[in-house]
Amino acid sequence: MSTPPLPFPRRAHLRRAAEFLVVFAEGGRVSGTCFRLHARLPADATQTRLGVTVSKRVDKSAVARNRLRRQVKEAFRLQRADLAFGDYVFVAKPDAAKADRHAVRSELLSLLARARTLKPNVATGTMPPSVANPDRKPSDV
User: Fold this and answer.
1) Residue ranges of the chain with pLDDT lower than 70?
2) What is the pLDDT of residue 2?
3) 71: exposed, middle or buried (C-beta count within 10 Å: 0-12, 13-18, 19+)?
4) How many CB atoms sit inside 10 A of residue 62's CB?
């Protein structure tokens, strides 16, 4: 008896640069030796999406960079059902190119487990919270 395949549809990918920038700006992050994981977990999210960046600084070879991308996507696809809804972006570090596939996979799973401890982002409006200044007088306005 075989298990049904776990889907990884196109809508589960972050595609535009603006989507990545929102995760970098508003999300929390956890780091490992080979990867840094940025996660934005808004309370109103309805799906789990993935973004992966592997720059030429990590490895000059496109084959090696694509191998890392495939490993990230596969680890994420297998864990996707257990993750909180939100956006996850993996950024590869130069050590990722030197690591073997078992080390890469164990770190990816470790980062995803640590991402579960991040707090969901709660929208508080467009302005940052004000800080009360006890030395300020009402006439200083």
Assistant:
1) 1-6, 120-141
2) 57
3) buried
4) 10
Q: Which domains does the chain have, with CATH numbers?
A: 11-119 (3.30.230.10)
Q: Give me the sheet containing 35-40, strands edge to edge.
A: 28-31, 35-40, 86-92, 48-53
- 102: tokens are 């078992």
pTM equals 0.80
Residue 43 main-chain phi, psi, to 5 deg: -65, -25
What does 39-104 look like in DSSP terms, one character per residue?
EE-BTT--SEEEEEE--TTT-S-HHHHHHHHHHHHHHHHHHGGGSPSEEEEEEE-THHHHS-HHHH
Pair 50, 9: CB distance under 8 Å: no
